[in-house]
């Protein structure tokens, strides 16, 4: 890529990560290291540090735009940030969030996915919801759109839930989440994200799933971990989430902090018990 600001984008011996690679990693018991990014510079840094999957999360509404939830984020916002992140990546697999009410129907979801993948250059779309989204997952998957399902805590429902709290506690809630995971996979989801789920439940979902399961606040037994890039750098506007570890402590610079995060996911030293929910 002549004239690029990022030397790592030049031809490299390793090839970019694919969905097949992520499935192979699950089967081999190799942990998948994931982070969010919202711009080309952080994307390039994460690429150099060895991150496997980059998510352009609608968390940008909170960490980038200063809102108190992800609800105000638009499709235009996601397209803009996804395209910027894609410009800084070579190796990592790129997932882009579908924002609030941009997938209310399966036809709307397909239109949103088209924009996020064509204009935003995402390689997969992610959206929240369990059984209620199974038909939408099937509609997209059969048309060639890779889908990541998102269950557990669903931040776009914060005004309905009332708070950002752990989900899946109690037998009924756990059984419902196990059913949601199975239905999403059966509908064609290629990846599953679990957020703020008791570790034992996340372990059971992961063991039952044939597709890779990524966790955030979901304990150590999922196939991979994801955190918000600003959180691992000690930048949070309010109370630090329980599942976050500050990797800037003792780090020489930001890139070494990200490398330490990647290493800690791969050697299973993160998450530690203090980062997990029961």
TrEMBL record:
NCBIfam families with a match to the protein in the record: panB, PRK00311.1
EC numbers: 2.1.2.11
Record note on cofactor? Binds 1 Mg(2+) ion per subunit.
The protein's matches in InterPro entries, at most eight in alphabetical order, are given as:
Pantoate_hydroxy_MeTrfase, Pyrv/PenolPyrv_kinase-like_dom, Pyrv_kinase-like_dom_sf
Compartments, record wording: Cytoplasm
Could you tell me one molecular function GO term of this UniProt entry? Answer: 3-methyl-2-oxobutanoate hydroxymethyltransferase activity
User: Function of this protein?
Assistant: Catalyzes the reversible reaction in which hydroxymethyl group from 5,10-methylenetetrahydrofolate is transferred onto alpha-ketoisovalerate to form ketopantoate.
Q: In which pathway does it act?
A: Cofactor biosynthesis; (R)-pantothenate biosynthesis; (R)-pantoate from 3-methyl-2-oxobutanoate: step 1/2
Whom does it interact with, and what assembly results?
A: Homodecamer; pentamer of dimers.
Give the protein family.
Answer: Belongs to the PanB family.
Catalytic residues (UniProt): 195
Q: Which CDD domains match?
A: KPHMT-like
* Pfam families according to UniProt: Pantoate_transf
Protein's UniProt name: 3-methyl-2-oxobutanoate hydroxymethyltransferase
**Gene3D superfamilies per UniProt:** Phosphoenolpyruvate-binding domains
What are the required cofactors? Mg(2+)
Q: Keyword annotations for this protein?
A: Cytoplasm, Magnesium, Metal-binding, Pantothenate biosynthesis, Transferase
